[in-house]
Amino acid sequence: MKKDQLIIFDTTLRDGEQSPGASMTKDEKIRVARQLERMRVDVIEAGFAAASPGDFDSINSIAQVIRESTVCSLARANENDIRRAGEAIAPAPRKRVHTFIATSPIHMEKKLRMTPDQVVEQAVKAIGWAREYTDDVEFSAEDAGRSDIDFLCRVFEAVIKAGATTLNVPDTVGYNVPGQYAETIRQLIERVPGSDKVVWSVHCHNDLGLAVANSLAAVMAGARQVECTVNGLGERAGNASLEEVVMAVRTRADIFPVETRIDATQIVPASKLISQITGYPVQPNKAIVGANAFAHESGIHQDGVLKHRETYEIMRAEDVGWSQNKLVLGKHSGRNAFKSRLAELGVVLESEEALNSAFAKFKELADKKHEIFDEDLQALLSDEAVTPETEHYKLTYSQVTSETGEVPLARLTLSVGGEEKKAESTGSGPVDATFKAIESVLNSGSELLLYSVNNITSGTDAQGDVTVRLAKGGRVVNGSGADTDIVIASVKAYLNALNRLHNEPAKLNPQEGV
């Protein structure tokens, strides 16, 4: 019996980017979109076109380069948002407008200040506007998990008649539990006229740790699209984890009546790329993509695995891409080999100047680190991408001393808007001293929320990947830096975050959590 296709709708670039400080540059978003397409994701929600001119430009650029996956933009159920979304996705061969309006009593009364009749009317209008740009229109009933089932049936019936092709039932605040959520999906499919003419979709948040469980329960009840993110990235506790949904369906093919198009060998490369770009590290015990996901510490487990893998492993590490970090380049590799490997990773540098700059940095890294892996290249390119073309703050010299029994001392020379400034400070450690030295000159007024160090590959010559999260004036940004010297990587990350605070305009975040 042929199985139904489960559509994988990835919202890493939209909902995932709403994680505090996880904003990405346009070039980074394009790299992620290319990786998602390589993974054969069905729908890429590239952003929220009305949020800012930068978001519109990123979505439009993604729409120009993605050929196989559907490119989607989110929009509130108003004419301006939908027209911005339609214009942004216009270049894509496959395109979708995803519009939403809240349907729960508390949202309609307190947020929208609209009656149920007005909500239905606005939803129908929104579908009409969206269909001027594409026949592929998705409608979401925001906070469906706390909405009245009779009203949901009414609004879904109305938008089907208006031409919506995908109906999304989001658990916006992660309030549902699997049995309850599955029953909601089951009732909607049974009760809504025309339900057999549309794809039913779910978008679950992980506030109670149930996003994947709720999504899979909904699939068993008839949903045929799951909205998810790589690494479960997303605001608050995150979203349903793409890798867990995909591998659950694949591993338990005996239970699930669906299959996906996903190339699972691209899961780990996608996870590592997104972790590096956003600065959100993956916990070691994270299912599928955690460093320990296929490690066996127990002697009993080790013995069993050696005798027969399936005694303790239900999946093979190589099936999800854990064997993908093979040695690719070294210090004697040429420019063409470097360019070819970037192309294989889906990275297209726009100019010869950009290629030359990246190759020069690669050669510098190769002098410090004998073996260069894909992860090193991704980190190098992330470092390139997060460095503004004209850095307001830039490190030009660093001397840090740390010895037993002595207080660490940092001496730095910074370029601030082209003007050279010297800084010096002591600290409880070399990193603390460098950060204090920077602030002694810049007095940024920002608050350090997070300092995180992760090794990119194994070995004592591995690059350290540092994330710094700063907050100022209600804005939160992440800065990233990579180097074989942890202190230098830390300075890069701190200055990168300060440059983002200085350069990036605040953007509208009109979406409260479909």
UniProtKB/TrEMBL annotation:
Keywords per UniProt: Amino-acid biosynthesis, Branched-chain amino acid biosynthesis, Cytoplasm, Leucine biosynthesis, Manganese, Metal-binding, Transferase
Cofactor entry: Mn(2+)
Enzyme class: transferase
MF GO annotations: 2-isopropylmalate synthase activity; acetyl-CoA C-acetyltransferase activity; manganese ion binding
Assembly information from the UniProt record: Homodimer.
Pathway: Amino-acid biosynthesis; L-leucine biosynthesis; L-leucine from 3-methyl-2-oxobutanoate: step 1/4
Region Regulatory domain, annotated ranges: 394-514
UniProt cross-references to HAMAP family, sorted A to Z: LeuA_type1
Binding-site list for Mn(2+): D15, H203, H205, N239
Protein name: 2-isopropylmalate synthase
Entry's Gene Ontology cellular component terms: cytosol
Function: Catalyzes the condensation of the acetyl group of acetyl-CoA with 3-methyl-2-oxobutanoate (2-ketoisovalerate) to form 3-carboxy-3-hydroxy-4-methylpentanoate (2-isopropylmalate).
Biological process terms in GO annotation: L-leucine biosynthetic process
UniProt cross-references to Gene3D superfamilies, sorted A to Z: 3.30.160.270, Aldolase class I
Family: Belongs to the alpha-IPM synthase/homocitrate synthase family. LeuA type 1 subfamily.
PANTHER family: 2-ISOPROPYLMALATE SYNTHASE 1, CHLOROPLASTIC-RELATED, HOMOCITRATE SYNTHASE-RELATED
EC number, UniProt record: 2.3.3.13
Reaction catalyzed: 3-methyl-2-oxobutanoate + acetyl-CoA + H2O = (2S)-2-isopropylmalate + CoA + H(+)
